[in-house]
Design a protein that fits this description.
Elements lengths: L2 E5 L6 E4 L2 E7 L2 E4 L2 E4 L12 H11 L3 E4 L9 H10 L4 E6 L13 E4 L13 H10 L2 E4 L8 H10 L5 E3 L11 H4 L7 E4 L3 H4 L8 H14 L4 E2 L15 H7 L6 H16 L17
């Protein structure tokens, strides 16, 4: 049983970065604020990062379910994500995007996403609204904090203010940045968990099988316990360098983690946090290079 705690989907990419537009230009590429970037694998020629493609990747890689977060660089995808959840209700959990203003009805969403490092006003105590809303509506919060400890003090206060609100810290605390462990320490709060979406991006210079990423996972587990850590892929941007299966296969093949630790990290913790039930286990399909 494998659950992806951090992936992205979009119908049309119409976002912004540093006040400049981000939009697809074909062949998996995007104009990223004036710079051309390979945003997705090149075979995604139409610029659409669809649920159908993702579910096919999940099935092939043996991933049972996924949590779809959002990013300002992709633009608000609330409407499309509602379509995705209607099509795949047992496979997907979805987040509504907080954009520094009141939100529309979030009843059909599972959580709220804050791109905290990209907020115009980065003081999280000035953004209590989405935390209070999620707490009142029984939703979870998915939040990507600014590098290091810039926002950890405020996040600690919020975790204490809403002790029953489930909070997932993304990008494994921006693990390759200075003071990343201050983000991990937030999981000492009973309601805060850490997910590893983007960890293969952050250790891309080392590349597969990411031995330093494995050691970082062990270091975080020693600090807050493996039961507070969850796997995430950051699909599809990380798929420009690796396959979807490779984004977790380095954990499976590592001899630095026990089988129980792998099971907790890759799925069991996420089942409890996100409330998945009766999970589908994809059938293993032999590919053309396997004997």
């Amino acid at each position: 049983m494998i659950i992806d705690a951090h992936a992205h989907l979009w119908k049309i990419q119409q976002g912004r970065v540093n006040g400049k537009p981000v939009f697809g230009i074909g062949a998996g590429r995007s104009d990223f604020g004036g710079e051309i970037r390979q945003m997705m694998p090149p075979y995604m020629t139409d610029g659409e990062n669809s649920a159908e493609r993702f579910i096919a990747n999940m099935d092939y890689a043996g991933v049972s379910a996924s949590v779809i977060t959002q990013e300002y660089i992709d633009g608000n995808q609330d409407g499309y994500l509602l379509e995705c959840k209607r099509a795949y209700p047992d496979r997907l959990r979805i987040c509504a995007l907080y954009e520094e203003k009141e939100m529309d009805d979030i009843s059909d969403f599972d959580g709220i996403k804050l791109c905290a490092g990209r907020l115009r006003d980065k003081n999280l105590l000035n953004h209590l609204y989405p935390f209070r809303l999620a707490s009142e509506k029984g939703k979870f919060i998915s939040v990507d904090l600014a590098d290091g400890d810039l926002q950890t003090g405020e996040m600690q206060k919020i975790a204490e203010m809403f002790p029953d609100l489930k909070i997932a810290i993304g990008h494994f605390g921006m693990v390759t940045r200075e003071n990343w462990l201050e983000q991990i320490r937030l999981a000492e709060n009973k309601n805060v968990f850490i997910e590893s979406g983007g960890i293969t991006w952050l250790f891309n210079s080392e590349f597969y099988p990411y031995p330093s990423a494995v050691e970082a996972i062990k270091e975080a587990a020693a600090l807050v316990g493996m039961e507070k850590l969850m796997w995430g892929s950051d699909y599809p941007r990380t798929m420009t360098a690796i396959t979807y299966k490779m984004s977790y296969d380095f954990i499976v093949k590592s001899d630095r983690l026990t089988e129980k630790e792998k099971a907790l990290f890759l799925g069991e913790n996420a089942v409890n946090f996100y409330g998945f039930r009766d999970l589908y286990i994809p059938e293993k399909i032999k590919n053309m290079v396997e004997d």
